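Quick log. Single chain, no ligands specified.
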Amino acid sequence: MAKTLEEVHQDVLTVGKKLQDLGPEIDKKIDLINDQIQKAGTEWKKEVKGDLKEALDLYSKLSGDKEKGEKAWHELATDQLAELEKSIQQIQEWKPNNPAPETNKFHQKFMEVTENGERLKKMKGEDGNRGQKDEVVMEIERKAVVTEAGALTGDVIVHGRAPGFKVKPEEANHIRQIMRTGFTASNRWWHVAETGYTNNTAAIAEGAAFPQNDFDLTQVETVNKKLAAHKKLSNEILQDLPGVMTYAQGRLMTKMFLLEDNEVLLADGTGQHVDSINNQATAYGPGALFQNLYGTGATRIDVLGTAINQARVTTSEGLYNPNVIIVHPSDVTVAQSIKLTDDDYLLRAALLTDAPLRVKGVGTFETTVQTAGTYTVGDFNQGAELIDSETMTIEISNSDQDDFIKDLVTIRIKERIILPVYFTGAFISGTFAAGITYLNA
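-> predicted structure:
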């Protein structure tokens, strides 16, 4: 049998009283979320759910009573119960280490309902029509939100970390890649060079004396040069920083390759330095045929083309076939930027692809070791050879000086190289500025 509106009202007052008594305990538990969020855990949730079960069951029963006489009450009560259920769901879904749920003070909310209980009597229930009702306003008090700034002290949050060590990239292209290489167990490299040749080869008549040819041979000696470096590390950093040994070795190798490039291409041969390719190369001078051929519009491409021609046709130095042009990346970019009169690019294909710039069929080798504004055209197959008398070696020891008593480790790297330049005419080197001036003269 359906309850009367007065009976329902009395049920509300009864449950409200229960919640009023239960409210302070719930509030204490909610405060515990904010004050001791890390200690709340699953057991607290179970306890609160147990405390609320009786009240929730009763309200669930009330919300299901939909007899005609109490229709108006149920519509209002359902709205009020929905607010409660939303807050209860927040508590039920709360997990340890999550921020505290935004909750309501239940007993305050229901006291407001019961205090306004008399307003329910103003609603008509006999014919199911609703009278003019007063709005019941329930203020929801939000508990303080736990924030990182207010609740965390020190490095509580575990930070992410990128693996390895981030190092600025260095030159990836090395001169060794384009050279003929060899090995010797000696500290010296000998080669026999033809230093002179008298050519009298001719067509002769029957019975005539054969013309005589002469030549001069000279033994040329090239001594190896030693390149080296070292680095000290404490045993503590080796134990506490994983990967630092690999990092240190890799960086030593990178710097060694960079030094080798500088020695092979640029060094002046004094002291312990290598007598480099550029230091022995033939100076640019393609001949009067090319002077003023371009008017005043000679370009870097013209300089490289005539340098290649010089190596191929200068008979006094030998006839070589250059296979590599060593240039700085900036000079390649300048060459690719040359435009025609219609504003189109002269070297469109080279500019729009990643293929190396080619001049007269000879490819460019870009490296920042080459001085910007300078070029080297060479026959690297015949002109020179890079000989290792001791290949690049890395050694590790704790016996250097007082490393053992200081708990240090020394890493050292070394190599010994020999650079015999067999034919200086196989290489043409100069600056673009001087070459353009030569061609525009």
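The chain has two domains: 5-151, 175-440.
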